[in-house]
Design goal:
Blueprint: H1 2-40, H2 49-82, H3 85-91, H4 96-138, H5 141-144, E1 151-153, E2 158-165, E3 171-180, E4 187-199, E5 206-218, E6 226-236, H6 254-259, H7 263-289, H8 302-324, H9 335-367
Helix pairs in contact: 1-2, 1-4, 2-4, 2-7, 2-8, 4-7, 7-8, 7-9
C-alpha cells in the first residue's frame, strides 16, 4: 500500500511541477518584458532586472502553485483513469477516500509552501523590489545612460545620447544633448567628443563634463543661433535629493496588516490568508473532477474544471474588493467563498455515494 501511495504522490508532484514551470515561464516572461521596456527607456538599469525577477518569484509562485497543483491532479489522475490504472487500484482494495487522503497529504505540503510565500516571502520580496526601484529612481542621469539610445531625462526636459560608454560608466564617447533653456529663450543642442562625471566634494553636486564639442543655442524656426565651441563644458545632472520614494501596499509585512484599521489593508490581509486556504479546497475538487470515462478522452474534464477554478478565483477577487469598500463585514471576509467551494467539493466527493445509498435503502424497503 505504501508503494501505491508513493506512486500516486509522484504522479501528482511531477505533473504539478511541469504545469507550474510552464505557467511560471509564461507569467514571468510577460513581467520581464515590462521591466525590459523600462530598462530600454532608461527607468531601470539592465543589471538589476534579474535581481528584481528573483525577488518577484515568491509573488508569482503563491498564485501559480495552487493552479499547478489543481491541473497536475487533473492530468495525473485523468491519465490513470484513462489507462484503467485507477480501476486496477480500486479492484485491489484502494478506496476513493484513501486516494483523497493521500492527495491531501501532498496538498498540505503545498499549502505550507504557499502560506510561507503569501504571508512572509512575497511581502519581503516586494519590499526588496521597491527598494531597488526607488534606488533606480534616485540614480543620476549619468548612471542611467545606455549607449546607442536616445533617453529622455530630467523629467523630460533633456534628451541625451551617447555612442559608447565605458565598462565602469565613467567615460562617454560621442555625446549629443538637447534641452530647453532655463530662461525659456530656446533650445540648446550640445555635441561633444567625450564626457565624464565630476563630483564636487564640497557640495556633493554632480556634473557631466563634456570635452571638445559645440553648443548651439536658439529658438526653433529662427536662424540666429549662437554657436559656441568649447574644450570643456559642465552640465549639472539630477541628484537623489529631487526624487521622492514610492511605497507599495503589497510590500507591507503581514504583521503590520493585522494591526491596521485601513479597510484596504485589512482586505489585503484576508487575501494573503486565503491563498493557502485555496490549496486543500481545489485538491478536494480536483480529485473528484479528475474522474474521466476512457471514451471521453484525456482532456474532456479540463474545461469544466478550469471554469470552476476561474469562478473560484474570480469570486475571491470580488469578495476582496467588496471587503475593501466596506460592503462586506470583516468577520465574514472572504470566508464565504471558501465555504461555498468547500461545500461543492464535499458534495462532488461524497454526494453521489450518499444518494446511491439512499436509493438502495428505499428500494430495499419497497421490496421488503
Amino acid at each position: 500500500m505504501r508503494i501505491i501511495f508513493r506512486y500516486l504522490t509522484r504522479q501528482v508532484v511531477v505533473s504539478m511541477l511541469a504545469v507550474t514551470g510552464v505557467l511560471l515561464l509564461v507569467f514571468m516572461s510577460g513581467r520581464f518584458i515590462k521591466y525590459l521596456a523600462d530598462a530600454a527607456a532608461g527607468k531601470l538599469a539592465g543589471e538589476v532586472l534579474f535581481m528584481i525577477m528573483a525577488y518577484r518569484f515568491p509573488g508569482f509562485l503563491e498564485l501559480i502553485l495552487p493552479l499547478g497543483l489543481f491541473i497536475g491532479i487533473l492530468l495525473a489522475y485523468g491519465r490513470m483513469y484513462l489507462e484503467s490504472e485507477m480501476t486496477v487500484l480500486f479492484a485491489c482494495g484502494v478506496s476513493d477516500r484513501q486516494v483523497l487522503m493521500q492527495t491531501m497529504v501532498t496538498s498540505l505540503v503545498v499549502m505550507v509552501v504557499v502560506g510561507a510565500m503569501s504571508l512572509y516571502l512575497s511581502p519581503w520580496g516586494m519590499q526588496k523590489v521597491q527598494d531597488i526601484i526607488n534606488e533606480q529612481r534616485k540614480a543620476t542621469e549619468f548612471e542611467m545612460l545606455s549607449p546607442g539610445r536616445f533617453q529622455s531625462l530630467s523629467s523630460g526636459s533633456r534628451v541625451t545620447y551617447t555612442e559608447a560608454l565605458s565598462d565602469d560608466k565613467q567615460q562617454l564617447i560621442g555625446v549629443f544633448i538637447a534641452e530647453f533653456s532655463d530662461d525659456g529663450s530656446g533650445l540648446n543642442l550640445i555635441t561633444a567628443e567625450a564626457g565624464s562625471q565630476f563630483v564636487d566634494e564640497d557640495t556633493g553636486s554632480r556634473f557631466l563634463v563634456l570635452e571638445d564639442g559645440q553648443r548651439f543655442q536658439g529658438a526653433p524656426g529662427r536662424l540666429d543661433y549662437t554657436v559656441t565651441t568649447f574644450d570643456a563644458y559642465g552640465l549639472k545632472v539630477t541628484g537623489p535629493e529631487s526624487v521622492r520614494e514610492k511605497s507599495d501596499e503589497e510590500a507591507i509585512p503581514t504583521l503590520e496588516l493585522m494591526d491596521s484599521d485601513d479597510p484596504e489593508l485589512r482586505a489585503l490581509f484576508h487575501w494573503r490568508i486565503s491563498l493557502p486556504l485555496i490549496v486543500p479546497i481545489v485538491t478536494l475538487l480536483a480529485v473528484r473532477l479528475s474522474r474521466v470515462n476512457p471514451r471521453q478522452g484525456r482532456f474532456f474534464h479540463l474545461l469544466p474544471a478550469m471554469m470552476i477554478y476561474i469562478v473560484y478565483l474570480g469570486l475571491l477577487i470580488v469578495a476582496r474588493d467588496a471587503l475593501a469598500n466596506g460592503k462586506v463585514p470583516e468577520w465574514l471576509g472572504l470566508t464565504w467563498v471558501h465555504v461555498l467551494f468547500l461545500g461543492m467539493g464535499l458534495w462532488l466527493q461524497f454526494g453521489p455515494d450518499w444518494l446511491r445509498r439512499r436509493r438502495l435503502e428505499k428500494e430495499g424497503g419497497v421490496h421488503a
